[in-house]
Write a structure and sequence with these properties.
189 residues
Length: 189
């Protein structure tokens, strides 16, 4: 579906909207979100990732009784269609303190850093592989030519035996092979 001039597009929204509307969806609990999806470094400008559309959304009403997500669109401003996210004006329940959030974020960072790969060490060679690789490295052009000249008589014998036609018109197993070329005859009308 293409966008025409008649279709509304998402526009920049005010960061802090003041509305009495409240979403009917259950409140977002901070303890249920990943610590990396919450930003409480500046408590008056707190933001979190919307569960429905995955965008970073400010929390309004930080100094009032009820904190809510700011009304927002699901798409990028000025680009996508102006579809209101269903989590707009959704209540936010602060069931963890800022120090608890910081501790959870620190723990998450430690856990993820311990999962990162270390320096990969090359796999040790078996003794046979090591001998083969050393022998290849020590070979010279003259040595390879001598090896090829030693094999040539056996290659010539194999080629000669492949060119020989077996005696008789019939293979050892299976039906006889027709030796005459078949040409279909047209019937005279």
């Amino acid at each position: 579906m293409s966008i025409t001039a008649a279709m509304p597009t998402a526009k920049e929204r005010l960061r802090r909207t003041r509305t009495k509307r409240v979403s009917q969806l259950p409140a977002v609990k901070l303890s249920k979100l990943l610590p990396s999806h919450i930003d409480l470094r500046d408590p008056l400008k707190a933001v979190l990732v919307c569960e429905d559309c995955g965008t970073w959304v400010p929390i309004t009403g930080m100094q009032s009784k009820m904190q809510k997500l700011v009304p927002h669109h699901t798409g990028k401003a000025g680009v996508a269609a102006a579809l209101h996210c269903r989590s707009s004006n959704r209540r936010v329940e602060f069931d963890m303190t800022i120090p608890e959030w910081r501790q959870a974020l620190t723990d998450a960072v430690k856990e993820t850093s311990s999962r990162q790969a270390t320096t990969v060490l090359p796999k040790a060679f078996s003794p046979q592989t090591d001998r083969t690789l050393r022998a290849r490295a020590e070979r010279t052009a003259a040595g390879r030519l001598a090896d090829w000249n030693a094999v040539l008589p056996r290659v010539a014998d194999a080629d000669r035996s492949r060119r020989e036609i077996p005696a008789g018109d019939r293979p050892t197993e299976g039906p006889a092979v027709p030796l005459d070329t078949l040409h279909p005859q047209r019937s005279e009308r």
